[in-house]
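Page 47, continued from p. 46.
Same chain as before, 412 aa.
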Amino acid sequence: MMPKSRLEISAESFRSLNGREVSRGRVSGTATEPSFSKITGDLEQAGLLISSNPETGVIVFSALSATNEYFAQSLTDLLTGASRRKKCPKEFYVADLDYLYSPTDTTRPAAIQAYLDTVFIVESLSKLAEHGTESTSTKLIFFHKEKIEIHINYDADKIKPIQGLQEFTERYVTDDIHADQKKTIIKSVLLELSKEFEGRTLDIGLLNEKFEEFKRRVSSGYQLYVSEFSFQKIKAEIEKSKFEFITKINKVFSDIQNQLLTVPAALIIAGSQFESSDHITLKNFLILSGALAFTIFMLLLIMNQRNTLQSIYNEIDNEWELIKKKHNAIKEQFDTQYRALESRYKHQYVLLEVVALIVVLACMATTLLFNYNSASQKISVELSMLLGFIFIIYIACRAYTVISKVLFPRST
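Result:
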C-alpha cells in the first residue's frame, strides 16, 4: 500500500474532527479517544500538528498551502492565489465540499469540474499567447492587429463546467493542420469579444460564461477558411510552381551552352596552333596560358551554376515543407510532383559535373600538347604522372560531392 500523502492525512484528520474550523492557514477541532491519539499521531508524523490538548480534545494543525499541495476552506479560498487560477495544484482538498482532488476521479462536484475546465481554458490559451505565460502573470497578452488582454480572473460561484472543451482544444489549439490559421481565427474572435463587452473586462470568467459563443465563432471562422481552401486551387498553384522550377533548373544548363561549344573548338585550335620546337617558345606559352585562363573561367562559371542550382533546390525544399505544414492532409497527393523536381535537380547537377570533367580533360590534353610540341615531339613521363595524379584527386573529390548531392540532397 502506498503511504498516504500529507494532504490525505490532513483530509482524513479534518473529517474526524468535531466542531471543525479553517481559518488563517490553520485547521482546528475536537476529538475524543481513541480518535484523538490517532489524529495527533498522524499529524505529528506528517509534521502538521501545531498543538493538541488531551483534556479538552482540541487539535490544531497547519492547512497545507504549498504549490502542489493545498488545503482550502472553499473553492474561493483555493482561487485566492494567482498561480492556482492558471494551474491546478497536483493535490488539493476543498473542506466545505469535502472533496480531495484526484486526476483519476470519474465523478466530481460540478463546482470542481467547473474549476478544472476553467484552468484548462487558461492552459490552452497560454499556448497561443505572446506574453503572460509566467506562473505569476495575471493576464494573457495576444497580438492581432492590436493588443488583446485577457485577465486571468474568475469567481468560484460564477464559473460552470464546459461541455466539449477537450474536443475544442484538440481541434483548434493542438492540431497541426492549418495551425497558424486556427491561431489567427482564435485571436480574431478574442478581439471581437473584447470590443463587444467594452463595459466589462475581458477575463477568463467571461470566456467561461460565453464559451459556447466563443466556440461557435471559432468554428464558423474555420469553416469559412476551409470553404475557401480548394484542392483544385492548390493543385493549380503547385503545377504552376513546378513549371517555374523546371524552367529555372533547365536555364541553369542552357545559360552556359554557348560557352560549352567553345570547349572542343578551343582544343582543336590550340592543337593546330602549337609549333614544334625543342624548347618552350613564346607562341606556345601564350597558347597554353590562354587555355589555362579559359579553363579557370569555365570552372568558375560551372561553380556559379552549381550554386544557382542548389539555391533553386533549396527553394523547392522550402516550398514542399510549407505545403506539408499548411496542407498536411493532402500532401501525399503532391509528393510525386516534388520528387520529379528533385530528379530533375539531380540530372542537371550530374550534367554540370560532366561538363566540368570535359573542361578539365581538355585542359590536360592541351597541357600535354604543349609539352609534346615544346620537347621535340616527346611527352614527359613526369608531367603525365603529375597530371594523372591531379586527375585522380579531382575525380575523388567530385565523386564524393556528387554522391552527397545526388543520393542525399536534403542533408546537404
